[in-house]
UniProtKB/TrEMBL annotation:
This is Selenocysteine-specific elongation factor. It is found in: Cytoplasm. GO terms for molecular function: translation elongation factor activity. The keyword GTP-binding applies. Residues 1-166 form the Tr-type G domain. It comes from Actinoplanes hulinensis. PROSITE patterns: G_TR_2. The keyword Glycoprotein does not apply. Translation factor necessary for the incorporation of selenocysteine into proteins. It probably replaces EF-Tu for the insertion of selenocysteine directed by the UGA codon. SelB binds GTP and GDP. It holds the Pfam family GTP_EFTU_D2. InterPro entries: Beta-barrel_SelB, EF-Tu_GTPase, EFTu-like_2, P-loop_NTPase, SelB_WHD4, T_Tr_GTP-bd_dom, Transl_B-barrel_sf, Transl_elong_SelB. Keywords: Cytoplasm, Elongation factor, GTP-binding, Nucleotide-binding, Protein biosynthesis.
Length: 593
């Protein structure tokens, strides 16, 4: 399907022409027919050739209803621009063209109506002059009369050629801007809109913005025909399950989950704007019209703060309209949906310079390079990376982040420096915990520390981040005390020193933890430390007992106290080499080596 919007001044025959082309009445309301003018959006369709359907979004031309017009034009990439032969170019012709140019609409047909009432030549020449310098410069022109039928066949052929020349929809996630919401008896809430990208199917779960609520597609119609699935570009009616009509309205959007994020602040490039813009304007994008606060950053750059969040991608185009003056004051291109803060003097000027160097559609590598590091999902919801794309070449992918290679090397070097500094200041605790290491090294996310440690030739284990050589250097009194304990345990492997012995030798909990890290001792439980070979010796001795055995039998085999025997048995249980049968008995589960 192809979708074409109409544009042009009020009462220049847009609706009449659509009716003549399609045989359908595009106007919606009895009030519209009574007044003889389009107030809101109308929709009609026809087959121009080869059974390919073309839908028309008929927009109002009256100045009072420009907001409605923008809601119809916003999601559409082709236009039938209508100018009356007997009136020529008028005020709303100019405003409609300004909007289309700012939206970068480049595909269209100029239809000069009422050619039975006046020579269409002057109106065609005048319109071509006004279109010159815009994206619609050079579009074909057709003189037509909906009353006499003159030129209708030529217009149909020209529109058919237009649809054949339209580029294929850009690949992307599903998003449908809602332009109408109503209730159908027996079905519930139905919304209509133009699906400009992606695919929607019956049963799909979508997100409704700005609420972020999950909704389910109960049914689909395209041009009043039930369908199970529809792809871009399509005019759709979507029946939503479990949603009342007062919860959805024009300007809301149905989007594919995980493919968009609600945008409340963004930096934009201005198109055809004055040097200064009013601080309060209305943003038009898709079918949405949202109040925004404007902060000028430079002659062609601004930061927009939205009163209502919208699901937007980098590279999209929209309009800024002054509701007081009632005219479009600028177009814009979205350059950044996650802009940095502006706090220091000169930040705005520096930001404008940075924005001037950005492309409308950046590559992943460009976006990562500009940010240094960014969550992968953030680039997906910003429209820079497709959800199913592989991690791109030229960036480092780790822990859900995409990192610029230069930044990655800098982080690895900073982590190595932090670990060295920590080891020098804490000789008994050479390992620094990842959170502290990330904070000191300026690493964005502590979850990246493991991969960076490998990059820097470091080790991340239970003791934290440290060099491959733990580098523990015990003070001489501590070393002598540990030597004494080791000698005693060598002679009596299960005679773990008690608190009084440790205090007499001057060994603190920190000293013992460092000894465990260094592999000098093992920790069985608080207050019970043995040589590393003690568990194997303990298992060898209980293997000689009749199975199952009791705590008392194990204690006797080990020649130790209950203070050591009970936690040592629990230690062996945790290792899976013994198993507790009941309150009194255990048995071995593995033979000792």
């Amino acid at each position: 399907m192809f979708v074409i919007a109409t544009a042009g001044h009020v009462d220049h025959g847009k609706s009449t022409l659509v009716r003549a082309l399609t045989g359908m009445e595009p106007d919606r309301w009895a009030e519209e027919r009574r007044r003889g003018m389009t107030i809101d959006l109308g929709f009609a369709w026809t087959s121009l050739a080869d059974d390919e359907m073309t839908a028309f979004v008929d927009v109002p031309g009256h100045q009072r209803f420009v907001t409605n017009m923008l809601a119809g034009v916003g999601p559409v990439t082709a236009v039938m621009f209508v100018v009356a032969a007997d009136e020529g170019w008028r005020q709303q012709s100019a405003e409609h063209l300004a909007a289309l140019h700012a939206l970068d609409v480049r595909h269209g047909v100029l239809a000069v109506t009422r050619s039975d009432l006046a020579d269409p030549g002057p109106a065609i020449a005048q319109a071509r002059e006004r279109l010159d310098g815009t994206g619609l410069a050079g579009i074909p022109a057709v003189a037509v009369s909906a009353v006499t039928g003159q030129g209708l066949a030529t217009l149909r052929d020209t529109l058919r050629d237009l649809t054949r020349a339209l580029p294929a929809p850009a690949p992307g996630p599903a998003r449908l801007w809602v332009d109408r919401s109503f209730s159908v008896r027996g079905s519930g809430t139905v919304v209509t809109g133009t699906l400009a990208s992606g695919t929607v199917a019956v049963g799909d779960e979508l997100l409704l913005y700005p609420s972020g609520r999950t909704v389910q597609v109960r049914g689909l119609q395209s041009l009043k025909t039930d369908v199970d699935r529809a792809g871009a570009v399509s005019r759709l009616a979507v029946n939503l399950r479990g949603l009342s009509t007062d919860e959805v309205r024009r300007g809301h959007a149905l989007v594919q989950p995980g493919a968009f994020a609600p945008v409340t602040s963004m930096d934009v490039r201005l198109v055809r704007a004055a040097d200064r813009l009013p601080a309060q304007l209305t943003l038009h994008l898709g079918s949405a019209a949202v109040a925004v606060r404007v902060r000028m950053l430079g002659p062609s750059a601004a930061r927009l703060t939205l009163a209502t969040p919208l699901p937007l991608h980098i590279g999209e185009r929209g309009l800024l309209r002054d509701p007081g003056a009632q005219h479009v004051v600028a177009g814009f291109v979205v350059l950044d949906t996650m802009p940095p803060g502006l706090h220091a003097r000169g930040d705005a000027r520096r930001r404008a310079t940075a924005l001037a160097g950005m492309r409308d559609r950046p590559t992943v590598a460009e976006e990562v390079g500009r940010r240094g590091a960014v969550r992968r999902e953030a680039l997906v919801t910003a429209g820079v990376l497709a959800p199913g794309d592989a991690d791109p070449d030229g960036v480092v992918a780790a822990g859900g982040w995409l990192v610029d290679p230069v930044v990655w090397k800098q982080w690895a070097a900073a982590l190595h420096r932090v670990v060295d500094e920590w080891a020098a200041a804490n000789p008994l605790s050479p390992g620094i915990v990842p959170d502290a290491a990330a904070r000191r090294a300026g690493i964005t996310d502590a979850r990246l520390v493991g991969a960076l440690a490998a990059e820097a030739g470091l080790v991340l284990d239970g003791s934290g981040v440290h060099g491959r050589d733990t580098g523990i250097r015990f003070p001489e009194p501590v070393r002598r005390a540990l030597d004494e304990i080791c000698a005693r345990l060598h002679d009596a492997p299960f005679a773990a020193p008690g608190a009084e012995d440790l205090a007499r030798l001057g060994l603190s909990r920190q000293h013992l933890a460092a000894a465990v890290t260094a592999g000098v001792l093992i920790r069985v439980t608080d207050g019970v430390h043995l040589l590393p070979g003690a568990p194997a010796e303990a298992l060898r001795r209980v293997a000689a007992l009749r199975q199952p055995f009791t705590v008392s039998q194990a204690r006797a085999a080990w020649d130790t106290s209950r203070r050591v025997a009970v936690p040592l048995l629990e230690y062996l249980d945790r290792q899976g080499v013994t198993r507790r049968l009941d309150t009194a008995r255990r048995m071995m589960t593995k033979e000792p080596r």
